[in-house]
């Protein structure tokens, strides 16, 4: 029996396996940010420990940073304290920090790939659940808790239980107006927000292979939203072409050796998965969520499920969710007015996302009832958007191109959606209060978000392209 992609990477990184228990796993790269690292560093101080391998740790500020006037002191006290503490800890423990003002600053899961730090075959962790983004490169990448952040800082290893394995095959050609965000929202809606709990998920099939690297990152990013431990895609020519020439990519002979190694990273033809799913790409239409978890999604022409379609045990939470969202069972939400459009987050803030939106809105104006925030995922994305004139397209359309950060993905900085307002968002979570107390979030692709921005309502983008 052959090995899966996951097996090959996992087995290369096991330091020791405890009989009947977890394995000690070696970690190649450890990303940190200002939210989940302070307590970990405090723990090291209290134990008199140093960071074991600081060169394998990469730090940036993203969650708490403002996305306007980053040259000024941060207004929110807690955010300011956390960012300052990260600077202090990185200086004390000898860790490279891409903080505010640094040309590499940005969302942690955007900068890793764009700098060539993320490479196939690695194990990667971060105190952030969307670390699964890096799995698009053929890595085992997952989020960890603060105590685990401390463990990796101290030892460069982590205790982990081997997960079960699932492969999701998406075959065929995507329809007009359907992009990678729609693929993953469709998958989560099909299997639920807990449907992959306990699994490492590999995405495969012709529809996945035809995606760009940035589109693949979007899919792997949201693996956690269906309960998966991580998501991954085997590296191929597209992967190699993306990495080549980036700042921290291997050079010269090291490059040739790396590419040769990466070519072995795939699931063997006779590899066996604990579970396997098959999806037809042509069945997917532009998606939108209606509830308060990412599994509550429908096609843009669909309707909110009627009570008769909901399992009796799930009705109380379903009704609570709709009450929060101000929606009714069985109603169509296409045509409903929206208040905010947020294009950004570690899911959809890369240059391809901004290009996609700019291409759609060029020559159009935003609706008068909508405020639009476009937040690049990094300083490099911002710089590229300006060099390509994308910022001018947004300006002409009435959009606001802000500065890099997690922004309105979560209510942890100044970019909050007011209570009761509807926000069409390209982010990854629609939990109650996620974008601010009382905010109502509907998750969509960048194209669907752009359509809502110019029409002022939930729109089927296929009618406009």
Mean pLDDT equals 97
How much helix is in the residues? 25-40%
The unreliable regions are: none
Shape: globular
Number of DSSP helices? 15
Amount of beta strand: 15-25%
Strand order of the largest sheet: 5-4-3-6-7
Total number of β-strand segments? Answer: 19
* Terminal CA distance: 47 Å
Describe the structure.
This protein has 465 residues and is an alpha/beta fold. 31% of the residues lie in helices and 17% in strands. It has 15 helices and 19 strands. It has helices spanning 5-13, 38-47, 77-93, 108-114, 146-155, 180-191, 206-209, 213-221, 237-243, 252-262, 315-325, 351-361, 379-387, 390-397, 446-455; strands spanning 14-17, 23-26, 29-32, 57-60, 96-98, 123-126, 140-143, 157-160, 164-171, 199-204, 230-232, 275-280, 287-289, 297-299, 340-343, 371-374, 400-401, 422-425, 440-443. A 5-stranded parallel beta sheet has the order 5-4-3-6-7. Strands 17-16-15-18-19 form a 5-stranded parallel beta sheet, covered by helices on one side. α2 (38-47) crosses α5, α12 crosses α14 and α12 runs parallel beside α15. The longest helix is centred in the first third of the chain and has 17 residues, at 77-93. It is globular and about 55 Å long. It starts with a helix and ends in a 10-residue tail after the last helix.
Offer a few descriptive terms.
19 strands, 5-stranded parallel sheet, 31% helix, alpha/beta, 465 residues
Concise account of the structure shown:
The protein is 31% helix and 17% strand. The chain is of the alpha/beta class and 465 residues long.
